[in-house]
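Researcher: Batch entry, complex prediction.
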Amino acid sequence: MRSRSRVQVEQLGEIRPTGRGRAAMILAVPVLSLLIPALATVIASAGGHSQLTRISAAIARFLLYYSGVFALLALTAAVAAGLLASDRTVMSPEHRILAQALHRTASLIGISALANHIMLEVLAHRARIIDGFVPFMAARNTFYMGLGTLASDLFIVIIVTGLLRRRFTSRRLLWRALHATAYAAWPLAILHGLLAGRSAKPYVDWSYGGCLAAVGLALVLRYAMTMRGRNAALEWPAPAMSSPMPANMLDFEAAQLRGSALRGSARPSLPPLPALPPASVLSPLPEPRPSGENLPPAWRTADEYQDR
Amino acid sequence: MLPVIRVGQARVTAGLDHRPRLDMASHRAVFGFPPALPAAELVAICEQVDLRGRGGAAFPVASKLRAVLTATGQGKRRSVVVVNCAEGEPGSAKDKMLLARAPHLVLDGAMVAASALHASEIVVAVAGDGPHVRSVTDAVAADGALARKVRVVSVPDRFVSGESGALINAINGKPALPPGIKTRASDRGAHGMPTLLSNAETFAQLAVLAVLGPAGYATVGTAHEPGTVMLTVGGSVSRPAVVEAPYGVPLGHVLDVCGAQLPSAVLVGGYHGMWLPADVAYNALVSRAGLAVAGGTLGAGVVLVLGQDTCPLGEVTRVAGYLAMQSSGQCGPCKLGLPAVSRSLEAITVGAGGVDELDALRRATAGVRGRGACSHPDGAANFVASALDVFAGDLTEHMFRGTCGRPIRGFLPLPADSRDKRLRVDWTRCRGHGLCGRLVPELIELDEHGYPRVHQVPVPFWLSKDATQAVDMCPALALSLTEDKVEPPATAAVSTLGELPSPMSLQGRQQPQAVLTGRAWRRADLDAAEAWLAELGGRDLSGPR
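Model: Structure tokens for the complex:
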């Protein structure tokens, strides 16, 4: 360890920045959601009659049946929360932060359930691997299966670019355009959900119809508010004075009047300003400096500090 | 290499006139072998000359030795000696200088203490990289007895790394942050063993004391504070240097020797220290008592001179921002309070703050005192509060005129890292959504229109997550976290034992500040403003006290 000629310097006390390992935590959700059903399917298809096999088969069956529904529900929540997070009229900044957090969480769950759904469909031989990524290639039910694939591709692009959002600060419009395709992908996903698989119960149809209508309305409102907000920004009111101090001392008398008026309204108990002390009481002030850059270096002498 | 200047007799700097670095042979030629002292005798001579720790706290070395002896049963159990050279103070270079140029003197002192305490190990803790690290590792390797006993460790180069609890944490394999529950190093320190921890200069002085004996040691200095002290003098001086001076020398003499140029004020005790008006500083005596009488503190011997051609408030603001970001982010009052202090100062400096801002500043400064695991918030509060006192005139001018008209030249040294990241706003895109102000209030404050006022400081490690989240959540994609593109200023040189920034070297780097031109200001305006301020603030800023 320690050689004769050279003494090792040990590096100790390293301090890690906060927020490390966040990417790993985010990745863990889709990875686990793929691993668990894959494992369950493999165990179930291995056969046998053990408890484990039966539980695995039940999990695989349940997820095959419902992971698509979960994906659609989560992505619906993501679209709604995203829309909510962009609102400035009803939502306070704190609530918008919460809505954004919900938007991200729902998207993460949605994309995980989506990956899960595609994998289980492939494992169940109801679709080929290529159908998971290239639309309109399916052997049967080509159109509605294709809609699902198209929506899934769009969602993958949206979520990956969403994770890389901070890299898009210089290409903001591109990012916005990509992210806005969610409003196209989501109805496609609903159509796929309602028409590609088993037939849905009427209340499911009605709920999705209601969701579509609500999001459509919210979208129109968002557009309207944005336009109004832009117009409002043009006629922004003059800022209120944050302190009774005049910004420009040259207008001192006027500012003094204004200041005392302000103070009069805010704190009526305060007496008016006292008369200024005679100049002789004040410490000598330095001579006014000439404007420009070549100021004398010693414009303020040490003597001034003597009486402090 | 930072030059060394000596005032009076040579003690720890003996021999440095002839050699840039005293190797083993030249060190022995100058100092000989220190005598092996038994513990009782070592405690006695430390007590006779009242040797104090030179890291800033000035704790009596004799008491530390006694505490370790008690904890080890008079040396029956094992103990550790830690030489603290993690000089986190940007303006201090004396410990680095000692390790770089007289490493054997420091190691001799550590060996004297270790043999008296029967310590099993000596840990030399350095920060960063540079000639002082190479010098001390070479010095350790040059001696078989040392190489068996001494471990050299490097801790992160941060302001609080040198705090004894943080250093002990680092040696024990934890992050170098001050612990929440205080344990005395002399009871449980490195590896849980009783530990004698003091700074590099203390051990150098201990070696000198062992060689000279208490009578010889006390031939210089004052009656109560015998011996010499190491100062690091920087700022607006033509000869920045590490100075060895006997206790009791007038600070004015030291300033003259270093070529101080028309100071407006002098900072003593470093960035946890206090400002002295120039005339007070020139008449103060360099000793703990002398500087305390003047209203300052000796601290770790940092003396920084502020010339009249720089904006003092701007300089103080730069340092306050640095101190805020050097918080470890562990204790709430410190991690929220110091940024608030720094933001208020910044607002006043750029002319955006009035009396309400000064009120907020005073409240924030008072509010952090005594409310942290270490003394960082207290030290930073001292620094800012004394600046508000000494620069009261400039403060008035900034509040009423927006500026004092002088540029911020950056005379006060600050380390800079090109990997530091700062938050930036694209103003053409920002729509004042205000999410960032909620997500990272330490760095972003919203103005009365709801637009962010971003604190221009490097984002510290404990805010990196919040800052990233603010960037991610900005609805307008207007916020970004970018690396500093600026070249490291000359002020970074202290960490590598280069020269402190001299006024000359900084001439080209001055940051122009908005200067109000056009109409000349009238003296009557300022008179009236000062009187009004005094009335509102309840303080008389204009008349004699």
